[in-house]
Amino acid sequence: MRHILNSFMEVTVPASESNTKQGRVSIWVKLFVLFHLVAITSWAIPSPQSAVERGKVTPAGTQWIPYWNKKYIKPSPPITLYLTTTGFWQYWDMFAPDPAQTDSWGDADIIFKDGSMKHYQYPRMFLLSIPLKLIKERYRKYFERAGSDDFNYLWGSFAYRVAYQFDDSKNPPVRVKLYRHWRPVAQPGQVQNEQYVSYMYYELVVNPQILADLHEAGH
Q1: 94 is a domain residue
Q2: Could you tell me if 146 and 155 are in contact, meaning their C-beta atoms sit under 8 angstroms apart?
Q3: Which residues, in sequence order, are CB contacts of 111 under 8 Å at separation 6+?
Q4: Domains held by the chain: number
Q5: Do residues 60 and 123 both lie within one domain?
Q6: Are residues 6 and 40 in the same domain?
Q7: What is the pTM of this model?
Q8: By C-alpha distance, which of 129, 110, 128, 131 is closest to 177?
Q9: In this structure, are 129 and 176 located in the same domain?
Q10: Relative to the CA of 202, which of 17, 24, 159, 195 has its CA 20 to 30 Å away?
Q11: 40 burial type by CB count under 10 A (0-12 exposed, 13-18 middle, 19+ buried)
């Protein structure tokens, strides 16, 4: 029995030493966690005000934080590649210090082969019931891109999607006109202007083959 106890004492690691070893974390794990925190924080910091970002206004005070982040940290290849390839990117900046100050919405006119025309009202939150607002909020978010000059590469795809919805083999659409309507949101205490500025920002001449390809792909 004494021999067995002696053998046990020789191979057993003291509890304090065992806990110390188990509590150690590799320096590489610590560096990875630090990098991850920097990356997701940088991605979540709101963009600077548009005038600051375009260089028309010099940042002041805390405005330097989003300015330097947007210019140097967020677009850096390690952060961008890491977040976009792993799926850790996100946008939690809906409560930005510079929220949208424009009320905008869109619609379209579809002209058919026989010369007739139909009007298409793109889903507009103002006209929808509360249940539909919850379901179709993504449409409003998409139009923020598809109705903007900064994302003009989406205009053609957007117009073809509208043409696809109204396609008729006997009387196919031949042109699609996209319109945007907007008005500035009044500051607190000011009277809201009820008039919208309207503008046709894109006209598509429909290619029948592209429309046929969309049907074949089931879009």
Answers
A1: no
A2: yes
A3: 117, 173, 174, 175, 176, 177
A4: 2
A5: no
A6: yes
A7: 0.62
A8: 110
A9: yes
A10: 195
A11: middle
Vertex 120, ends 117 and 126: CA angle to 5°?
150
pLDDT of amino acid 92: 60
pLDDT attached to residue 88:
84
Residues in the chain: 219
Same domain? 107 vs 208: yes
Report the candidate in 159, 147, 157 with the shortest Cα–Cα distance to residue 100: 147
Instruction: Give me the pLDDT at residue 22, please.
Output: 62
- Does 153 map to a domain? yes
Residue 49 CA to residue 55 CA, distance in Å, equals 10
**Residues of the chain below pLDDT 50:** 1, 4-5, 8-9, 11, 13
pLDDT digit string (tens) for 147-174? 999 899 999 999 999 999 999 989 999 9
Same domain, yes or no, for 22 and 118?
no
116 and 205 both lie in a single domain: yes
